[in-house]
Amino acid sequence: MTAQFLISLFLSIIILKGMMNFLKKYFLDLPNDRSSHLKPIPTGGGISFVICGCLFGAINDFWLPILSLPLSLIGFLDDLRGLNPTLRYLTQALTCLAFILDSKIYESVIQNSTIFSQIFFIVLLILVGTAIINFLNFMDGIDGILASCMVIIFGVLAIRSFPYLVPFIASIIGFLKFNWPPAKIFMGDVGSTFIGAVFVGCIFQISGNKNDFLMIFIATPLLLDSFICVIRRFFNGDNIFKPHKLHLYQRLNQAGFSHQKVSVIYLLTTIFLALFYLFGNLNMYIISILSTLIFGIFLEKKYAFPFRNYKKLNE
Hints:
This protein is an all-alpha fold. The chain has helices at about 1-25, 45-60, 65-80, 85-100, 105-110, 115-140, 145-160, 165-180, 190-205, 210-215, 220-235, 250-255, 260-280, 280-300, 310-315; strands spanning about 30, 40.
């Protein structure tokens, strides 16, 4: 794994350097009223860890990145020219279905249920899986936040259950070299949906073990920010499918926190949860999750730009 880590790390960097001019020409992200950056920056940089993830996945007979590839290709086309949201969601749903049929939870629970129970569980898991993919995609809004946090999350998954994630983690670190504030490149949907899909695939694979399943809560800073934002916008009467800048991390940035400061806050909180998961007992881990929620409320009340609907925010 050490050799694969180093090869994947440098391969990711080489791919990005080699594609930089191409991405600047065809995948330039121009600032708009929902952007957190002020100048055009190329996107689509996630292609580096998609290539490395699939390459080393095939070498190691680790197929989760391969199963995530169609979703990444749809993300690539979406970054290039924009696609119908229905097509994007359908691809996400089919990707999650592939994960489910290949998962331990299907073998141990769903397969032995009645046909109606099977349909119910499969639909429920598809809804959960696609929600996680989209929640993580929503969090790719400022420099370095998603890539840095997912390095820690995938690191814990690699330690506990999926050692073949190691070269994939290395490729994300290679990308992070260009994405850390101030970012020279964004990962785009090609990368964020791929990361989300691989994460969902891992969670479905470990879901037969209750303690391992609790690993999902290491992603609390990312997932809870998106989840709470959706709920608040729904009860605020907003169109929850309409783009916005109302996540906590975005409102911290609007309140004057730099991209680096916001990303470090989320990264350190993720590390905090990872350490309690790896070295603490269940009670300590639950307390750390609740502490993260309380810390988020503190940031919301003390520092974040006030939450309001999209219309008022842009008046």
